[in-house]
Specification:
Chain lengths: ~300, ~270, ~375
């Protein structure tokens, strides 16, 4: 559906005259290109080309300061990707990302459902804004606030000790997942909310009549229908989690090497830019593959 | 679309959901509350209450380093938001309204990449790029980097809005207005404004919050607030940082509420 | 379209390959005179290493930046900070134009070797004569041609007296193999630094911290990995706070950081030095020198020389130590340093202890092995 060319009149004229139709199509093509051109050029210069440079550098050799020498091209960096150390780090990051995504979905879904099922639109909007407000503060400060809440003088630790339920949580995996959940919750709540809010509730009502229990109606109707939201939410959480390292470092005590900080190390302490480039390049390819696969299966079910 | 009477969950389920909801809100606001409350605490040790004071706000305003980085952050954020909103909106229109044009397929793919690419990778490739083309690192390089990832986010948000829109309004407009630009300005733009504003807001937030990319491509004197806080917060955590945080939150909330207010007013006027 | 992209990519590569360092900075340096300034100063230093702003005020020490700007009213100091040598190196390598940087000893060797540093004009820095003769000809930079010593310090163990006793000296075992009965298990922190942490492990095992023997390196890496189970965190930038607020009771770290913290939390009623201490382990430890240097990317070379000269003044050198509690390589500064600092083993170790200290050296390509060993230990 084009913007302004789709008048019935014009269409009829075009149908009658194939010359006009062709010209209209060319005009449309030109206009589309024109709209996208500025962004296209910008992204080519500040995204596509830099991305290509990464791949080019990954085949270069390493200078004493770590910067690549554009000679002595080799596959060393790519071969190094097969190291058991790299595999270990990758698997750990993968595991963290999967767990985090599952956690976010588990906690985010009932929350999104509750918001989406409030009757007045005003309430729903206000609740959504209320979810977003904490994220307009600086991410680091939020994370450090958690660190303070969880350390030995922190409120949460004190509550835990007083109730006997838990000890010091700081620098444990629990703290890391708490921090990650906190950071990624909106990314899962927003798409879920969008999907649930748009549901055709007549179907749900019908389901309630058909099935004896509400939970069956939920499982068989609401849940499958909200699938696009689940898919979008999980992609929005999974992909960034793969590269996450700041939260695990701050709340987990930097005791694990994850993909994110392993890459940063190559550009700082390890002074091995070509390998860092190879790592970044490889991760991007994998993520792209995952995203494409995910959306393709999703499109099929819809 | 509307929530029918019979489709509501059973009351006890609803109650559990509500309790769950409020618990999650408590979870979300706990650290924020702490940040705000302790910005008024007289004790230099964050975490121990020392009596009410506004000293930290005063100190914050007198801290030249801090104010400089705040100024840098705001400059970069505003500049990158404006540019990326314009480019991103145009891109969204191109993708949603025009089905066939040269390079559309490739563009569609490229536009989504900055969203899925990990921060670290983007930071690295931009640093390598600026080094390769011999560009000086500074506020300019930071702004250019922010625009690069913000275009995509704006485009996605605006495109979602466009997809939900009723195209008949615009067709009617075409009959009314002589030029395409007029039709755009008077009909399309107001209709997609919530999407554009949403995209701009997202871009602003992402730019203000960015640490990884900025720390890689910054240059002398171009430290932004998040990077400065990153350096400072690990060392001496004084409530000065809480004061800055609280201020930034108040500003952001104010911005959003203002835009929401204007938006509902515009919506109401449109409906009339 | 593809062809266009290809051409642009090739152009970019060519530019990159052709991009070389500027010979201008060196020429400027050779012409500088003492006290001459040529524009603003882009200073790039470690966080909290230079007294300035409210922190200087709190500590009762002169504000170096304000002082410099007072002496040279036309000069504005732009102060940017970093928290690791490598982060600074990455920026300089990428062409960022800083006028003065503060690299550690081994980093000076690296930068020197890659022609990233300007050869200093000693005529413009008469204050060099104030330096302690021991620092006149350091191993990493003979004759101080490219750098001037700034502060020096040691890496050791900071601890809570309730949990460790140092009357007979402390061993690195306190953090690497505390034993099952140690009361502070789970309340230990290591530095999050490849060379430092591996170095400490190597010293504990009796090896040199500059070893290029893979077997020794692997042993150190395995030691850290095992010890990891009993630590709270790897931390290089807030470990002293973790110690004083009880999250840890024993921590690996730098002497100045610990001492400045102890001083900071002492009040009229509470003397932190009764509660917390610092010790250089008996097996030996790392000593390091931080220096001031001018990168080849600098624009205002003469101003940089003037700043270096100011820091070398006796009073300024003393204030520097009074602020960050690191030892000064400046002999003339000693009369301006607080007497208790001068007497401190922790800041100025005895001759005997000095012999067990080792300085880091750059290991070239073998650095990658170290970095992988550390990543391995942390995985």
């Amino acid at each position: 559906m084009t913007l302004l060319d789709d008048h019935d009149q014009v269409k009829q004229e075009e149908a009658a005259n194939p010359e006009l139709e062709k010209r209209a199509k060319r005009q449309e093509s030109w206009r589309g290109f024109f709209h996208a051109a500025p962004a296209y050029v910008y992204l080519t210069f500040f995204f596509t080309l830099p991305l290509l440079i990464v791949y080019v550098f990954s085949f270069a050799s390493r200078g004493p300061t770590g910067k690549p020498f554009l000679e002595d091209w080799n596959l060393d960096s790519w071969i190094k990707l097969g190291d058991p150390l790299v595999m270990e780090i990758a698997l750990r990051s993968l595991w963290l990302a999967l767990l985090n995504t599952a956690l976010c979905l588990l906690i985010g879904y009932p929350f999104a459902y509750w918001i989406a099922t409030r009757r007045s639109e005003r309430t729903r909007t206000l609740l959504l804004v209320a979810v977003l407000i904490p994220f307009w503060s600086n991410f680091l400060i939020r994370t450090y606030a958690w660190r303070m809440l969880l350390d030995s003088d922190g409120i949460i630790t004190q509550i835990g000790e007083w109730s006997g339920l838990w000890g010091q949580l700081l620098f444990t995996p629990t703290a890391v997942f708490l921090g990650l959940l906190y950071g990624y919750l909106p990314f899962v709540v927003l798409p879920l909310y969008a999907a649930i809010e748009r549901l055709d509730w007549t179907l749900v009502e019908a389901g309630r009549d058909l099935y004896a229990s509400g939970s069956a109606a939920f499982r068989k109707i609401t849940l499958p229908l909200s699938k696009p939201g689940i898919v979008a939410g999980s992609v929005l959480v999974f992909i960034p989690s793969l590269g996450a390292y700041v939260t695990p470092d701050i709340l987990g005590g930097a005791k694990t090497t994850l993909l994110g900080n392993y890459i940063v190390t190559q550009f700082t302490a390890a002074r091995n830019w070509p390998f860092g480039s190879a790592l970044s390049g490889a991760i991007l390819i994998i993520m792209l593959a995952v995203t494409i696969l995910y959306f393709r299966t999703d499109a099929r079910t819809i | 679309m509307t929530l029918h009477q019979g489709a509501a969950a059973r009351p006890w389920v609803d109650r559990i959901l509500a309790i769950n909801g409020w618990l999650i809100f408590a979870f979300l606001y706990l650290p924020i509350g702490m940040v705000v409350i302790f910005s008024f605490s007289a004790s230099p040790n964050v975490g121990r209450w020392g009596g009410f004071t506004l000293d930290w706000y005063e100190r914050m305003l007198g801290n030249e380093q801090l104010m400089n980085s705040l100024r840098n952050s705001v400059i970069v954020a505003l500049a990158s938001t404006v540019v990326s909103t314009i480019l991103g909106t145009a891109a969204a229109i191109a993708l949603d309204r025009y089905r066939k044009w040269v390079g559309r397929g490739a563009f569609d793919a490229v536009v989504y990449l900055p969203i899925i690419i990990p921060d670290v990778t983007m930071a690295v490739m931009l640093l390598l790029w600026f080094t390769s083309i011999g560009m000086n690192l500074g506020l300019g390089s930071i702004t250019l980097s922010h625009i690069a990832f913000n275009i995509s986010f704006v485009a996605v948000v605006v495109r979602a809005r466009l997809a939900n829109m009723d195209p008949f309004m615009e067709e009617a407009a075409a009959d009314l207005y002589a030029s395409r630009w007029q039709a755009f300005r008077r009909v399309t733009l107001p209709l997609i404004m919530p999407g554009v504003l949403g995209g701009a807001l997202l871009a602003l937030t992402l730019s203000l919050d960015d640490v990884v990319i900025t720390s890689f491509v910054q240059g002398p004197g171009s430290t932004t607030l998040p990077v400065y806080v990153f350096g400072l917060i690990k060392r001496s955590v004084t409530p000065e940082i809480n004061a800055v945080s609280t201020l930034m939150m108040v500003m952001s909330v104010g911005l959003v509420l203002a835009s929401l207010f204007f938006q509902t007013r515009a919506d109401r006027r449109q409906r009339q | 379209m593809k062809r266009l992209v290809g051409i642009i990519a090739v152009l970019a590569l060519v530019t990159a390959a052709c991009g070389g360092s500027d010979g201008d900075a060196q020429a400027l340096a050779d012409a500088c005179e003492a006290g001459e300034v040529d524009g603003d100063l882009n200073l790039y230093n470690w966080t909290e290493y230079l007294p300035t702003g409210p922190e200087a005020e709190d500590a009762g020490v002169v504000d170096f930046i304000a002082e410099f700007e007072d002496r040279y009213p036309d000069v504005n100091v732009v102060y940017t900070q970093y928290d690791s040598n490598e982060a600074m190196l990455a920026q300089i390598d990428a062409g960022a134009s800083y006028d003065l940087v503060v690299p550690s000893d081994y980093m000076v060797s690296i930068m020197k070797g890659s022609d990233l540093l300007v050869k200093l004009n000693h005529d413009a820095i008469p204050g060099m004569s104030n330096l302690d003769p021991t620092f006149a000809n350091p191993g990493y930079d003979a004759g101080n041609e490219y750098s001037v010593p700034y502060q020096w310090g040691t890496t050791g163990i900071g601890f809570n007296y309730d949990y460790l006793d140092d009357s007979e000296g402390i061993s690195w075992a306190a953090i690497f193999e505390p034993g099952e009965d140690a009361e502070y298990l789970g309340r230990i922190s290591f530095l999050d630094d490849t060379r430092e942490t591996l170095g400490a492990a190597l010293k504990y095992l009796g090896y040199s911290l500059n070893t290029t023997d893979q077997a020794e390196l692997d042993e150190a890496s395995a030691l850290i990995k095992d010890a990891k189970a009993d630590i709270a965190a790897f931390d290089s930038s807030s470990y002293w706070t973790l110690l004083t607020n009880g999250d840890t009771h024993v921590a690996m770290g730098w002497n100045g950081d610990f001492l400045a913290e102890y001083d900071g939390i002492s009040t009229d009623d509470f003397d932190a030095y009764e509660q917390y201490g610092y010790a250089i382990p008996t097996e030996g430890a790392a000593a390091w020198v931080d220096t001031m240097a001018i990168p080849m990317t600098a624009e205002h070379v003469c101003t940089a020389h003037a700043f270096i000269d100011m820091v070398l003044e006796p009073f300024m050198g003393g204030e520097l130590t009074n602020y960050n509690y690191y030892a000064s390589p400046n002999l003339a500064a000693q009369e301006h340093i607080y007497p208790d600092i001068l007497e401190w083993e922790a800041v100025y170790p005895s001759e005997e202890t000095m012999t067990s200290l080792e300085f880091f050296e750059d290991l070239g390509d073998f650095e990658i092995n170290y970095s992988d060993a550390f990543a391995q230990a942390k995985s």
